[in-house]
Amino acid sequence: MDAEELQNLERQAFLEWRKTLSELQEIDGIVLTPYEKNLEFWRQLWRVIEKSDVIVQILDARNPLLFRCEDLENYIKDVSQHKNSMLLLNKSDFLTEKQRRIWAQYFADASILVVFYSAANEKKTRKISEESGVVSDDTDEEKDLSEKLETLELRTQTMPESNYLVTSSKTGVVNDCRVLTKEELVKKFKDVYTGPKEKKETVIGLVGYPNVGKSSTINSLISTKKVSVSSTPGKTKHFQTIFIDDELMLCDCPGLVMPTFVSTKAEMVIWGILPIDQMRDHVGPTNQVVCHIPKHIFEDTYGIFLPKPQESEDPNRKPTAEELLDSYGFMRGFMNARGLPDHPRAARYILKDFVNGKLLYCHAPPGSDQESFHIYPEKRRQAQYNLTRQMMRITKTSKTTPDVLDRTFFDQNIGRAHK
Q1: Which residue of 106, 223, 344, 374 is most buried, as measured by CB atoms within 10 A?
Q2: Cα separation, 30 vs 288, whole angstroms
């Protein structure tokens, strides 16, 4: 089979696959992620799988199952039984040790190898280490550097490694719930593949959704910027190979959105799958954030005032998207030409804070209680609010209260009785 015949078969199979997915969306009304429809991007993925010994899916640790593609894992086994699959949960610094242990147990029971990593933490660690190499006669600066080094030492002083290993009694898979350092992750990549190799080096294929930190992970492993990084989904366009050393080579695949089932498009916005700056409806994503984050977290994070529920409402109800955007808009001075809070602009800032982890919400694995999995901190302060009349008028809920209903009824002009 020559190259032209192969490309024609790939194009035909790809079109049939897209047709099947379109029928699911139109006939069954299923909501799918806006998966990549350019065949060239998928060809990049196929070449990476063919070239790699181990394919690593990089996921967002706050919501791993949204970014995981089980069909990809099955396809890898179809290509070759010798190829291995592995999950890397990036941004694991957002998770507590207890949360990482629960996820490690969940994946071990499902016979899946998983590692926890934080590219952002490695970047900070490298920056502190570089600062520690600067010699200064100033004792205060030396003291600051020594404190930073002590912080690094405390980070590495952990319990014995065996205490972090999670073993499944069902499958026998063993996962490490620690957040691995760069050196530990490189060693893991070298040791994970035990099958036959055509070359001396182990080839690790890195696959993941846009904006999960795939390029940042590669840059942290090689300690220099070799892959361009952007907050806009889909920065990497073509796969590239990068040698870590003589024994390990990374194969970076362009960020691909896999076709998976989701509840709404708003969910894709708040998790960074769809770009926030290009969204047309800000209400849906903001409501999603409000459903996840308690009221006092917004108030403590932004120093804002959110209206209390009315007497006829549930005193423990969550704030509405309108209430949050009104309060945030006032606080930041985001006003439109009519003198009202600029909701779209305020929503973009809040949604970006959610994507970046400033407003933190971590999903629990299936079978775990969400409330006990992610426990929010207590309210830090009782703020005193000095509201202007305009702020009170706009932030006041638009729902009709009993007092307003009674006043409206008795103020109306009622006709006199017939004589």
Answers
A1: 106
A2: 19
Quick one: which of 67, 85, 89 has its CA closest to 76? Answer: 85
* d(C-alpha 380, C-alpha 335), whole Å: 29
Quote the pTM value.
Answer: 0.79
Contacts of 4 (CB under 8 A, 6+ apart): none
pLDDT at residue 343, as a whole number: 94
Give the torsion through C-alpha atoms of 147, 119, 282, 341, to 10 deg.
20
Q: 367-401: b or e for each residue (b if 16 or more CB lie within 10 Å)?
A: ebeeeebbeeeeeeeeeeeeeeeebeebbeeeeee
Give the pair of three-digit tokens for residue 408.
């409206």
Residue 59 has pLDDT above 50, yes or no: yes
User: How does strand 248-252 pair with strand 240-245?
Assistant: antiparallel
CA distance 116 to 91: 8
Cross-strand pairs, 241: 251
- Roughly what angle, to the nearest 10 degrees, separates helices 119-132 and 139-156? 140
Contact 350, 290 (CB under 8 A): no
Handedness of CA 315, 316, 322, 327 (dihedral sign): positive
The two tokens of residue 9 are: 């078969």
Tell me how far apart the alpha carbons of residues 206 and 250 are, in angstroms, rounded to a whole number. Answer: 7
| Distance linking the first and last C-alpha atoms of the chain | 101
Count of CB atoms within 10 A of residue 358's CB? 12
What is the C-alpha to C-alpha distance for residues 380 and 20, in angstroms, rounded to an integer? 52
Mean pLDDT (the chain, rounded): 81
The pLDDT-based confidence of 267 (bands split at 50, 70, 90) is confident
Find the angle CA(149)-CA(150)-CA(156) to the nearest 5 degrees: 95
How much of the chain is helix, strand and coil, in % rounded to 5?
45, 10, 40
Q: How many residues are there in the chain?
A: 419
Handedness of CA 15, 17, 20, 26 (dihedral sign): negative
Q: Scan for tokens 């490694």, then name that residue.
A: 161
Whether residue 35 contacts residue 257, with contact meaning beta carbons closer than 8 Å, is answered with: yes
By the 8 A CB rule, do 261 and 67 touch?
Answer: no
Alpha-carbon distance of 67 to 174, in angstroms, equals: 22
